[in-house]
Amino acid sequence: MTWTEIIKVQTNDRQVSQACLDYLAEFRREKTLVGRCRIQLYVDAGFSSQVMVRVVWDSLCPSGLTSHLAEVLIHELKAFGLVDHSSWKPI
Question: Is the pTM of this model over 0.85?
């Protein structure tokens, strides 16, 4: 069973967005848990100041609906702008 976490960041300009993406690219290289999750990065097609992280887990969804990895990311990404998190499971 897989489940997905989506973390969206609304930055205030393109430079902050790029700094956020640079941070996330480094985070992905360091923190990807081989065989447990995949971290994918996106930018909004219309607004370059919006960044999205998609973490796809190959495990059961925890009862708290937020992984430790996402908690760390949410805390760090607040330095770049507004952060929104949601968890999704297949039906």
Answer: yes
Q: Which tens digit of pLDDT belongs to each residue from 22-78?
A: 999 988 888 765 568 889 999 888 877 899 999 999 887 777 788 888 999 999 999
Contacts of 36 (CB under 8 A, 6+ apart): 57, 58, 59
| Encoded amino acid at 11, one letter | T
Indicate the pairing of strand 50-57 with strand 37-43: antiparallel
* Strand partners of residue 56: 4, 38
Residue position matching structure tokens 């507004």: 82
> DSSP characters for 30-71?
HH--TTTEEEEEEE-SS-TTEEEEEEEESSPPPTTS--HHHH
Amino acid at residue number 20: C
pLDDT confidence of residue 52? 94
